Amino acid sequence: MKYSKWSFLIVSALFVPNAQAKEAAVVPPAEPSFSASSELASPKSLGAYSPAKLFDGDPTTAWCEGAEGLGIGERIIITWPETVEIDGFAFMPGFHKSEELFLKNSVPRKIHFAIDGKDFPTFLVGYRLALAGDDEDPKAVRGMGCYPTPADLLIPWRVVVFPETRKANRLALVIDSGKRGSAWADLLISEMVLFTVGKEPTGLPQEVLRAAKILIELRDGSGPTNLYAPHTQIHSTDDNRAYAQFLSMIHVKQPDTQIQEPVIETRQELNKAGSQATAWWAAQHPYLFDTALAIDGARIVGPVSTRHGDGEWVELYPEILLNDEDQIYQLGEAAYWDGVPGCAGGVIPSTAGTEGWRYGEE
């Protein structure tokens, strides 16, 4: 993978004589300060849940809001002493100190961010949801519904990439809704990493950093040829694709509505007008930028792009698959279906293809 603009200044210095490097040196962005609208007071330690815990590189610590209920409207605020350029950020929702504490505490469900006072649209934070509630909870602190599971600890990071580099003096992350924990309403976020131009991100697993860099390079038109495998499988984005998946789910065949077979395109074909890759990116762009993407190993999974059905339904989630050489080898969608009310939307399908309840199955 080619070097991103985050690391370009560092890398280029390796090829410049000392005198020239000194002359061409660029001062890295100033360090930001962190604050929050509230934080949970700990009787054991002052600042145990302060916003600084988001940026300490330790997933066993966390910021916890200190407001009543789920902390709706509470926010984390990052302020720079001078204007910087940012490409997005990554965050780890929930309390990742242990599986028990992750499930007992609340997690953000809907979030939006604001840059220098300008609010951007709210987006869903996806989880591996399962049905739970009063029948499994003797304290009945939450009603029946779909809630995060221990499997979420295996997919801890969410990435938000902006559709263009943005200038900022202040970035705020705002809680719009949450999923209540099995014991407490306290809502936590364990880690956050900023994608600031001129500064290499630290504290991220390699697969998360890789996914963010690939998306930014593709966004900036940095040459898709070397970011794709020699042959890439690309799925259709036609308007009937969710309906076709739904018919497959309920075992109904209609000659005029069938799941289209994916096509294979070479690197040379990807750049041609009318390619399936171009159509895929155009259709999925709103679901890959300014929203939370789940990074599941070599999978990048976006939010729901289209759905069909009601009592029984199918949802499709954009999915990018990477090979061992950090190249894209598949552009597609993961399907998720379920007949359980309240579980629609914001799920992270566990595998490419299909998952969930299916008509006619026990």
In CATH, the topology of the largest domain is named Jelly Rolls
What is the ordering of alpha helices and beta strands? HHEEEHEEEEEEEHEHEHHEEEEE
Q: What is the straight-line distance between the termini?
A: 45 Å
> Averaging pLDDT over every residue, what do you get?
84
The CATH superfamily of the largest domain is known as Galactose-binding domain-like
Fraction of helical residues? 10-25%
* Unreliable parts: 7-24, 352-362
State the domain count: 2
Radius of gyration: 22 Å
Structural class: alpha+beta
Query: What's the overall geometry?
Result: globular
> Which class of the largest domain in CATH terms?
Mainly Beta
How many DSSP E strands?
Answer: 17
Tally of separate helices? 7
CATH architecture annotation of the largest domain: Sandwich
Largest sheet: 15 strands, mixed
**What is the percentage of strand-forming residues?**
25-35%
